[in-house]
Amino acid sequence: MKVVIPGGSGHVGAILRRHFSALGWEVVVLSRHGASTSDVKFVPWNGETFTGWEKEVDGAEVVINLAGRTVNCRYNDTNLDQMMQSRVRSVHAVGKAIQQCTNPPKVWLQASTATIYAHRFDAPNGEATGILGGDEPGAPRTWNASIEIAKAWEEATNEMETPNTRKVLLRSAMTMSPDAGSVFDVFSSLARRGLGGTLGDGKQFVSWIHEDDFARAIDFLIAHEDLDGPVNICSPNPLPQREFVRILRETWGVRFGFPAPAWLVEVGTWAMRTESELVLKSRRVVPTRLLEAGFEFRFPEWNSACRDLVEKYKR
User: Fold this and answer.
1) For the structural domain made of 2-177+208-236+284-298, what CATH number should be given?
2) DSSP per residue, the chain
3) Of 24, 115, 177, 184, which is least packed with CB atoms within 10 Å of its CB?
């Protein structure tokens, strides 16, 4: 079995590289950087044009496209344009590679994001009942811009005609792993220094998924040929940010977390060259389609997931 992972050199890619290598799959990562190992073959690509990497797609069972400029940046016009172009162009490149295959992949799993849903508190966003964002009154321009990028990402995928390859849009929440530089690593570092307190009013929902469940959900989607289109990849139990960080602190044995009102979050994210939308927007997302199809989570609750991640982190 062969899986090709464009953009698979990042943290989510690391989870999948480990997972598929452990299963004995042939793993090929398409990336601008990275060196091949005994378990993973790295092939250079520019995310846009054919340079030989497209041959790896022909005959692969699965393609998982994770490519796209990181969202951990300031949402200025230059970065937003790079975020948009890197996503749409990589989708076009992958889609065209699949179209020219003699033996095309059975399934194309395309990264998307839970950010596509509206900033809301009243009800969770499932795939069928959720509200897509972009029209919330008073939402900052940058919040709407990130949603437009997410919509364009999915639209580009849907426009690619791959009649022999099933397409799944992975509307993923924050994927939690103990890897250095991961979002869990960043949150844990802040919590351990006493900075893991309530952000804003703390009512905004945090959607997340444990790395093990993320990898298992990918396996599930590969195996279930009746699943296509948008699928939320997240725990069934999002929780308010106030509760999320309280559990994180307690698991690390930290008594206090310095709270930050919204204006201070803006200052802090500006200083860190990142964006407040990543922590202030309410992402209340649930995996309705996975649950209805029979997927069972190992870590449905943040309490148990956090304990497992901290134990792995310490090891």
Assistant:
1) 3.40.50.720
2) -EEEEETTTSHHHHHHHHHHHHTT-EEEEEESS----SSEEEEE--SSS-SSTHHHHTT-SEEEE--S--S-S---HHHHHHHHHHHHHHHHHHHHHHHT-SS--SEEEEE--GGGB---SSS-B-TTT--BSS--TT--HHHHHHHHHHHHHHHHHHHS--TTSEEEEEEE-EEE--STTSHHHHHHHHHHTT----BTTS-SEE-EEEHHHHHHHHHHHHH-TT--EEEEES-S--EEHHHHHHHHHHHHT------B-HHHHHHHHHHTTS-THHHHS---B--HHHHHTT---S--SHHHHHHHHHHHHH-
3) 24
The pTM score is: 0.96
pLDDT digit string (tens) for 254-311?
999 999 999 999 998 998 899 999 999 999 999 999 999 999 999 999 999 999 999 9
What type of residue sits at position 111? A
What is the residue extent of each domain of the chain? 2-177+208-236+284-298
Backbone φ and ψ of 134, nearest 5°: 115, -20
